[in-house]
Amino acid sequence: ADTIKVGILHSLSGTMAISETALKETALMAIEEINAKGGVLGKKLEPVVVDPASNWPLFAEKARQLLSKDKVAVTFGCWTSVSRKSVLPVYKELNGLLFYPVQYEGEELEKNVFYTGAAPNQQAIPAVEYLMSKDGGEAKRFVLLGTDYVYPRTTNKILRAFLKSKGVADADIMEEYTPFGHSDYQTIIAKIKKFASEGKKTAVVSTINGDSNVPFYKELGNAGLKATDVPVVAFSVGEEELRGVDTKPLVGHLAAWNYFQSIKNPTNAAFIKAYQGWAKKNNLPKADTVVTNDPMEATYIGIYMWKQAVEKAKSTDVDKVIATMGGQKFKAPSGFEVEMDPKNHHLHKPVFIGEVKADGQFNVVWKTKGPIKAQPWSPYIPGNDKKKDEPDSK
Amino acid sequence: MLTVSNLNQYYGGSHILRDLSFEVPTGKVTTLLGRNGVGKTTLLKTLMGLVPAKTGTVRFGEADLTRSPSHARVRAGIGYVPQGREIFPRLTVAENLEMGLAVKPASAQVPERIFEMFPVLRQMMKRRGGDLSGGQQQQLAIGRALAAGPKLLILDEPTEGIQPSIIKDIERAIRALAESGEMAILLVEQYYDFARSLADQYIVMERGEIVMRGEGKNMDADGVRERLSV
Amino acid sequence: MKVGTLEHADPTQREQWEDGAPTGRVMTPGELDLSHKVILYLEDITVSFDGFRALNALTLTIDAGELRCIIGPNGAGKTTMMDVITGKTRPDAGRAFFGQTMDLTRMREPEIAHAGIGRKFQKPTIFEQHTVFENLELAMKTDKRVWRSLLAQLTGEQRDRVAETLKRIRLTSEADRPAGLLSHGQKQWLEIGMLLMQEPRLLLLDEPVAGMTDEETERTAELFVSLAGEHSLMVVEHDMAFVKALGGKVTVLHEGSVLAEGDLETVQNDPRVIEVYLGR
Amino acid sequence: MVRLLFLLALLARLAWSPACAALDPAQLARLGADDSDEKIAAIAALASADPEAVLPVFKALSEDALFVAGDKLVRLDGETYIDVATGKALAAPPDNAEAVSINNRVRRTLDAALAGLRLFASEREVRLTAAKDVSANASAEILPLLDKALAKEADPQIKQLLVLAQAKASLGSPDAAARLKAVKSLADSADPAVRQLLAAMLDKSSGSYAEPDEAVRIAAVASLTQIERRIAVGENLGRIFTGISLGSILLLAALGLAITYGVMGVINMAHGELLMVGAYTTWVVQGLFRSYAPQWLDAYVLAAIPLAFVVAALVGVAMERLVIRHLYGRPLETLLATWGLSLVLIQAARVIFGPQNQEVANPTWMSGGIELYAGAMLPLNRIAIIGFALFVLLIVWLMMQKTRLGMFVRAVTQNRPMAGCVGVPTRRIDTLAFAIGSGIAGLGGVALSQIANVGPDMGQGYIVDSFLVVVLGGVGQLAGAVWAALGLGIVTKFLEGWAGAVIAKILVLLFIIVFIQKRPQGLFALKGRFVEN
Amino acid sequence: MRTPISLRLLTAMPRSGWIALALFALVAWVLVPVAHLALPEGHPLHVSDYFVTLTGKVLCYAVVAVAMDLIWGYAGILSLGHGLFFALGGYAFGMYLMRQIGRDGSYHADLPDFMVFLDWKELPWYWVGSDSFLWALVLVLVVPAAIAWVFGYFAFRSRIKGVYFSIITQALTYAAMLLFFRNETGFGGNNGFTDFKRILGYSITAPETRLVLFGLSALLLMCTLLLGRYLVTSKFGRVLAAIRDAESRVMFIGYNPLHYKLFIWTLSAVLCALAGALYVPQVGIINPGEMSPANSIEIAIWAAVGGRGTLIGPVLGAFTVSLAKSWFTVSFPEYWLFFLGLLFILVTLYLPEGLVGLWRRIRSTRDTTPAAPKAVAKAAHAPASTSTHSTPPDAAAAEGASA
Ligand SMILES: Nc1ncnc2c1ncn2[C@@H]1O[C@H](COP(=O)(O)OP(=O)(O)OP(=O)(O)O)[C@@H](O)[C@H]1O
Ligand SMILES: Nc1ncnc2c1ncn2[C@@H]1O[C@H](COP(=O)(O)OP(=O)(O)OP(=O)(O)O)[C@@H](O)[C@H]1O
Ligand SMILES: NC(N)=O
Ligand SMILES: [Mg+2]
Ligand SMILES: [Mg+2]
């Protein structure tokens, strides 16, 4: 063929469309950029966009279709961990290649997947450390609040173990879960208030995902819980999510990511400009106010790294590309040169903690000196020390 | 005056009304008789626009109503007491009567005459129509049709389920309405004695066709009763 | 017929009813006990709706094989009484017995039907989507449990019975038409036919000839008279000619209780009956 | 601790020294430094300056409107840049201006300083807020400040707050009499923090009581019981309120359906999308106000109400005319067609407005909350929604029960052909009724936009709950829907407090299933003989 | 009772039906396997594994659709919670598949990965025996049947009907979904079960295994159709339809609707469960999303699109809707909801009896004879013999959604 097919597997409808649509746009933009510069191995990339509609079995079906019917060389896709888990068997069976761009809970290391989002130690752990630091407010009690599914559950399990290792008593940790789409946070916020009033400095660690964030933050604002009293640090709320919220009452609440749109450096400026241009050119809804965020950056990095690996391997063959992916470097919009770990399929990424500003952007208040290596198998989970830091080779 | 000419009506493919033509003059009672299933109710439904006429015309006074929707016919002055009562079960008796005034301005009142004829309706104003006994519902249906003071009153077996004393009242009332000279009345009735005593003119149907017609006073002589019981 | 026996009429029928909260506690499980010649016994039945007494301490008995006419003004409570007998309405007070032993106020509708009470409603209710034939087939007296229905097939004899009934109600030509397409009077007939197929011991007939021609009314009367004796019948009608043709004892209901009782003539001449019902 | 010391210094100085005129340029320079510690020190130092001069600077700092431009510190006031050192407006905006950013730690100090300064402001509201802030963080160090403020304060409500703050701050006083007085006056408090403080006095873990004086301990026990009772009352009030609030939302989401489904019998699976239409209309109205009438921005919700009704009603008319009209008498088919309609509407929203959620801000008069009782914070938007639910309910009730239109609607749905035969133009009534039901759903959307997501999928989240409410109440029973919504709201909230949101929701659903066993026709079952036939 | 049941089963369907069934069996059991295994990939007639899994999945959906139609179309009970039974069957069989992974999971432990991860030390009691295929089959049948039976018993005993029933079934599946979302419930929470490796020792991804599963799905569908056909043409079917149209009347002639409804309801649930059990190994994942109310609504939609009150209709509906969805989501990823939504609207408006109605209409226009009355007489018979048809207009309008 004279083109290389690239699968894009993001929900464009259903509950996840809110988050995933922007990733599809980013992927298309990157592909266009690459094509404009001559493509890969002299061939143009041809995106194959499908809509798995936030339906997990449909993800599996679409993955199979991309691999066995369209014969794509690589797929960029998935947001929720469950969607990734549902396509995994397909990628393993048909030896496909998937780039997964979202922060996640770890506990996984698959040959056919490259993880360009954060592992817990690249997001959750530093964030909690920050909360415990002087600048972070020296929090002593923690509310672990999340949506009831595997990512928050796992992350909180790791955090609990971490907090324990830091001497935080179980009584000083409150764990709460709400179902997907939960929209009434009155009770929970009352509980948090009560918990916070009972003693030492309290902070909230939110792993609420998806739609629920809007009612959560609205309620938070109206209940008068200010960031100076009880700061909330979120792991799944970025610029895109904040577009749907009135951020004025939220000033000072935090988020931890590996990228913020507000980071100032030429690469990022170019990235933002490119995306804004893309949005205008393609008439995306509300094109004048589009934002960039961490998973978009991760998608972008993933595509370019794949390109580099292909060029190094001189082939799009999956096994060859996997072999050349390790050690790929890319100058990322975060301002750092990120590197694909030689072995563990995860990126070395810098960590940023930002406070929400009134305009919906983040003010970076803390960052790592440089990229840190991912630990997909969290050391805080017993038994993980025996795990290999690379995929099982079969 | 209602003028029906060459009316044909089908259900699916079966020919139910065959080329009917007749008139219902104002100030008179026209009774329509026929055995079960000959198409009397179908005819009345066609007159009310509940089922569309296949061919033929229905004129009321000057107006051609053949293709008008039901509510336009009511507006033109037709009142209808259907077979099976068809009251509004979850509306109160008062509201059912008010429904009878749907074509009148909102300020219109239910005429006192109706309560004189059916005193039970006044007692039960607040009860829901569906809770009434069968006979009470029948009275309500008649009351509802009379509320707006129609120029043509169509009744489909109005005595069904009504106690004898009230049947007599109804008989008197219909008589009086006809004699007032402002109303045309088309009455479908199985109860021969009742029909005969009211009829100014009669029509007998059989299998969708009119097979006899004549003056009411000649009904006995014409052998209508025998005709009905073949 | 064994009278006064405690044996179960058809043991296979029992388990079917052994569910449900108000277990039809048949006082003496067994065949209809007609030892006192009374098939239906209502005592002090009271039913109120939002304070309005539709039945007011109504007491009434019907003998086995009797043909009883019930008349009375609109709203006297005739239909409500039938609702009580068939289990559709629970009385606020009073007792209702079928035979000597079956307490109707504690039985559920299908149990009552099974015990042998059949009813024709004031407004004809039939299965509109089913053909006339199927309506009769469904009503036929047979084992009505699920497994039986799954395996059931009409025997020739059963077919004959349906055909016979069709003829009786003069709907043979309509046998294969959906019942919903029948005219009002035809539906009335069909419902009577279904009742016949059920072979009930006691038939409750609510205004069976409404909407029938005079001739058909007569035929209906003949039919009912022929049924009396073997069956017991309770007929509600406003058509005095029909009541007369039936010739049985007449009970006049008024405001929820019995106003007068006797043969038609006596009742017709009772001034109170004339006042509230017949009119002058 | 460091922070507290700064606080002490700042507040003490503020209380004692007379205001000095100009701001110290050295401190101003530190304010622009990168390091948080520097900033905090600068704030502490500046806090003793002339309030008139320093307030705008602090405000600018807290609102991201303070910039470092070269060696100058400038603040943005509206459209103009002002040199902080000189207090003069700059002719042109400085190039190379970089915002001075603060983190939560700095913000805390800043807020305290602002509150302290504002205690002496002339506007009552400002002082009130400041008093609340101060009393929340009251400690012995600020006693002199409180004394001074109390001496000046005339407003009784603010005074009371300050007295409480004073008492709280005096708890640590070495003087037993002062402590006793403080403990006694704290009996009026309902602040969990106070409870914590009092409980700490009674702590005996180190062998002897933390509070040495017996009389003070006795008073503390007495005060503690009172406070605890009050907190308990507050919590229960709060729970009932949240229940009612949830109930009012369920009701608003369900009322439109109570008409389209409950009265007209149309199983409208696109009901949620009509809510969405209302919510998007609100968002559009907000946008229009922002662009064309920013001074009236707070009124956008009021303008959105009629508009949302109209827009949703028009969508309803279109749905009715194009689709539903052909399906009367085939109620289950409406399920299929309206499901299709809902897909189309969702996708339309996605294409027009994008898949993301839209930001709908509460107008200021609906932001924040009132504290009914310490611990029972009633957010204003929730209160407004409860009121709005009552308002919509009243409208619906009047329309259905008191107007001829309502009667016609009910008649048409009970017996369509016969309604025609008494002269009701049935088709027009259908359209009208459906339009009204849809419009009411649009109103529900306005309310939802104030508390939840506004996005293409938002309606899907309400459809199950809406049907539950209508059905639990009894189809066609407005009163039933009201009770069902409130009942569900309160039960959910009490269960949630006890079992968490997920289990509570499961329990509520199971409860509904069991409840319907008992009342197969819903809470307000239609009674009467016509029901069966 | 005199004719043996096997014979009656045979006569329950006209000869054309048997021929169609035989053709279907030939395609499913012979042509597809041959085309999949024997023909090389490039061959124009080659059947890809994508096709096999997709079609296998849709066959399972078709079974569910028929099961739904048995209760909705024939008994008038609209369940908006049938996804629950489908999912329960899937979960029951999924437990077995999880155990078959053995130590090949990422944790190389005896317990399923998600349990290791959540610190479960041993299998919870309800997992006992789940490594046995036979026990899994028992669970597939018994659990959904028991739940359906208990739920149905109480619901039907209280005479919950119409939309009330629909809504509580929806509540039921919704509650179950929330329950299964919880990790504590012990079924993998939101992720559910996935990453299956083996079934009865055979690799689950082997083409032969796939074909067997595909063939079994086809077999299940055929059996369901046959059974359905038998039921609806029996007296049982007529009683059921009578209950649908006038329940209280049925009671007055002595049938107890409770038992009738309960039987068909439970049967329908079991059919769904079987379909679910076959579905899971073919798509490779089961999670609580299958219990979402929207999924159950979609099941009803398959039946309605195809033609309610017929047996072949739901099959057509399931195929049309699922395949349309599969195709639209690829060809028009941004606009497919418009097409799907419009499809539903147009079918309802113009094909009130679903696709089957369309086919009937085409057929009847084709053999229209000049003798109009004859054709009409036939038409009058049609509704009765096939029991399609909605309630008559007046009654239905008055009664809202209780049909
Ligand atoms: N909806 C329908 N579809 C087809 N046929 C119908 C329909 N309604 C009635 N019929 C048939 O039309 C014929 C005439 O019915 P109609 O109700 O007009 O009779 P009728 O004269 O009023 O009888 P009755 O005295 O019993 O009321 C009957 O044979 C009936 O079976
Ligand atoms: N559910 C109910 N709610 C209120 N009132 C009712 C209810 N059911 C019956 N009634 C009243 O009870 C009385 C008795 O009704 P019933 O139907 O038994 O009378 P009936 O003797 O059969 O009259 P008819 O001869 O008119 O059929 C009537 O006044 C009726 O309005
Ligand atoms: N990986 C997540 N956010 O599900
Ligand atoms: Mg008639
Ligand atoms: Mg009666």
From TrEMBL, chain B:
It comes from the Bacteria. Gene3D superfamilies: P-loop containing nucleotide triphosphate hydrolases (3.40.50.300). Keywords: Amino-acid transport, ATP-binding, Cell membrane, Membrane, Nucleotide-binding, Transport. The keyword Aminoacyl-tRNA synthetase does not apply. InterPro entries: AAA+_ATPase (IPR003593), ABC_transporter-like_ATP-bd (IPR003439), ABC_transptr_urea_ATP-bd_UrtE (IPR017780), BCAA_Transport_ATP-bd_LivF (IPR052156), P-loop_NTPase (IPR027417). Residues 2-228 form the ABC transporter domain. One of its GO terms (molecular function) is ATP binding. Belongs to the ABC transporter superfamily. This is Urea ABC transporter ATP-binding subunit UrtE. It comes from Niveibacterium microcysteis.
UniProtKB/TrEMBL annotation, chain C:
It comes from the Bacteria. Residues 1-28 are annotated as: Disordered. Residues 40-280 form the ABC transporter domain. Keywords: ATP-binding, Nucleotide-binding, Transport. Residues 1-17 have a biased composition (Basic and acidic residues). Pfam families: ABC_tran, BCA_ABC_TP_C. InterPro entries: ABC_AA/LPS_Transport, ABC_transporter-like_ATP-bd, ABC_transptr_urea_ATP-bd_UrtD, BCA_ABC_TP_C, P-loop_NTPase. One of its GO terms (molecular function) is ATP binding. GO terms for cellular component: plasma membrane. Gene3D superfamilies: P-loop containing nucleotide triphosphate hydrolases (3.40.50.300). This is Urea transport system ATP-binding protein. It comes from Niveibacterium umoris.
From TrEMBL, chain D:
Keywords: Amino-acid transport, Cell membrane, Membrane, Signal, Transmembrane, Transmembrane helix, Transport. Residues 1-21 form the signal peptide. The chain crosses the membrane at residues 240-262, 274-293, 299-323, 335-353, 373-400, 467-491, 497-516. The keyword Transport applies. InterPro entries: ABC_transp_permease (IPR001851), ABC_UrtB_bac (IPR017779), ARM-type_fold (IPR016024), BCAA_transport_permease (IPR052157). The keyword Transport applies. It is found in: Cell membrane. It is a multi-pass membrane protein. Belongs to the binding-protein-dependent transport system permease family. LivHM subfamily. NCBIfam families: urea_trans_UrtB (TIGR03409). This is Urea ABC transporter permease subunit UrtB. It comes from Niveibacterium microcysteis.
TrEMBL record, chain E:
Coiled coil: none annotated. InterPro entries: ABC_transp_permease, ABC_transptr_urea_perm_UrtC, LivM-like. Pfam families: BPD_transp_2. The chain crosses the membrane at residues 50-72, 79-98, 133-156, 211-232, 258-279, 299-323, 335-351. It is found in: Cell membrane. It comes from the Bacteria. Keywords: Cell membrane, Membrane, Transmembrane, Transmembrane helix. This is Urea ABC transporter permease subunit UrtC. The gene is urtC.
